[in-house]
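HOLO CASE FILE
Compound: adenosine-5'-triphosphate
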Amino acid sequence: MKKVIGIGELLIDMMPNEKGKRLKDVTGFTKKAGGAPANVCVAAAKLGTSSVFLGAVGDDAFGDLLIDELNTYGVNTEYMERSTVANTCLAFVTLTHEGERDFIFYRNPSADQLYRGLKDLSILDHQILHFCSVSLLGDYPMVNTHQRLLKHAKTHQTIVSFDPNIRLALSSDHVTYQQTIKAYLSYADILKIGVDELEFITGKQVYKDQIQWLRTYPWRILIITLGKDGVHIYTQKEDVIVPSYAVNVVDTTGAGDAWIGAFLAQCAKHDELPTNILILLDYAKVSNAFAALTTTHMGAMEAMPNLVELNEFLHEKDLKK
Ligand code: ATP
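Model generated. Tokens follow.
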């Protein structure tokens, strides 16, 4: 069985206690573990796959909390670093009733950006490496670490998975952000993109043109997530749309991370990257169920179901067919 190895940011999401207010008017916050690549590792671990998180937190109380949280879910944190010069990243984000996003990221830099990581890269060999774009911004050690790991991965039979997971709030220079993402697309064997991110990445407005543009890159599987409508999956030859399940949605935070985490967990268990569209269809059904269940509770990591809950849900849906 392969391992799922995630690299990138692990941070504290300060969730406002009231929805719809501007940050300056919010009366309090609740701390939650966050960070897309870390969410993916938790999803894989919850489904019984070995997962390893690579990244840094500060040598502070929030860093303790985050490492404890990952360990609770069974994610291996032995290669993480604790920074004594920068604190754990904090993100305060709220959506006002008018749909405006108010945000403050404490990241100047934060510990996650300083991760130098792994001298011996052999833990990546023959495994699955997942990364996102938030940790590719700026001129920090973490960017070099990504480049070092990705170059190694390409020559050591590592399956590389990339979910750009765009966070425009993190950069005012959107041109550089877009170019940065483009520079990393070629590393991906599995490329997962939310449908609403396609225009930013490809510069095209029409879906067909966006996919055509993405076809110029060497991915083996392209996954376009469609929110409540499920996913559109492509191999180089075929494609299939797999609808999601109707659930009572409470919070969609981390649904995309849950989806790709569950998908990578299945690839890891079967020890290979499927290119047969029927196998991909089966994987997508399981991932849709896992992600749909994640939306039925608040938060990301804690909202993800375990294997028993997932199987019960799938069994129930099968019986209703
Ligand atoms: P992010 O979590 O960053 O928004 P994303 O844009 O990839 O990532 P979505 O496309 O919103 O995420 O959702 C990912 C997957 O979660 C979908 O493909 C679907 O399987 C499931 N999902 C999301 N929203 C719903 C919903 N309302 N009902 C059922 N399933 C959902």
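CASE NOTES: The pocket of adenosine-5'-triphosphate is lined by residues 165, 194, 225-228, 230-231, 244-245, 247, 249, 252, 254-257, 259, 288, 291-292, 295 (CB under 6 Å). The first strand starts at residue 4 and ends at 7.
CLOSED: yes
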